[in-house]
Design brief:
Elements lengths: L4 E5 L6 H15 L5 E5 L5 H7 L5 E5 L16 H6 L4 E4 L2 H6 L4 H13 L3 E6 L3 H5 L3 H12 L11 E5 L13 H19 L1 H6 L1 E5 L7 H5 L6 E4 L6 H8 L3
Parallel strand pairs: 1-2, 1-8, 2-3, 3-4, 4-5, 5-6, 6-7, 7-8
Helix pairs in contact: 1-11, 5-7, 7-8
Bound molecules: 1,3-dihydroxyacetonephosphate.
Length: 249
Amino acid sequence: MRKPIIIGNWKMNKLQQDAKELAKELIPLVQGSLADCAVCVPYTDLICVKEVLANTKIGVGAQNAHWADNGAFTGEVSPAMLEEIGISYCVIGHSERRQYFGETDKTVNMRTAAVIKHNITAIVCVGELLEEREEGKTENVLRKQITEGFKNFSEDDFKKIIIAYEPVWAIGTGKTATAEDANATILFIRNTIKELFGENVSQNLRILYGGSMNTKNVDELMSMPEIDGGLIGGASLKAADFARIVNYR
Ligand code: 13P
């Protein structure tokens, strides 16, 4: 059985003082949750949030990592650096990085391979643009992102991978995919994984939904059999809202 996980993606929000307060507020609120839980925070918040969340059930993640251990890559942070400070998760290939920072399936592949080598669970994001959905290209887009993003990966590698399906048109827009659509698309992703990496990987892999997931729609989304959790942007910035999502019913 796949254990659900709800992950907050704080994106480029929260100075350290606010970050520590939000993390502290969350601890008692999510203590009894059945789902796993983590927050992916800006680099400058990693150490202080990690300190606040030490010995709690809330994991701490970054939002990107380079593929090399070190070198002349100005502005980048390596997986070795994240491992050194005890980081457990890292978002890779978020659509905002694909759209604004030239992230490709090839760089997603390299970053993911490097991160898992350093014992960090990669949260690999896939998803189609609005025009791709409207032109009926969703499945082709996802198939390409998966085939190229996980090229040369082994069954074992998937023990350190979570996929987040985030339709780009649903991110920060208030538009959510219907629970049925999200479930069907995630089933397509799972079947593609099965085709490429086998039944075992596909059955054990956690696949999350992301895109305007909030306190109002979480219960319905989480009732779907293929949806193993959520990657939450805006609604993860308020403790009460994020906790309600983690404690979905
Ligand atoms: P919103 O929840 O703000 O739509 O963001 C989703 C997202 O991009 C999470 O990674």
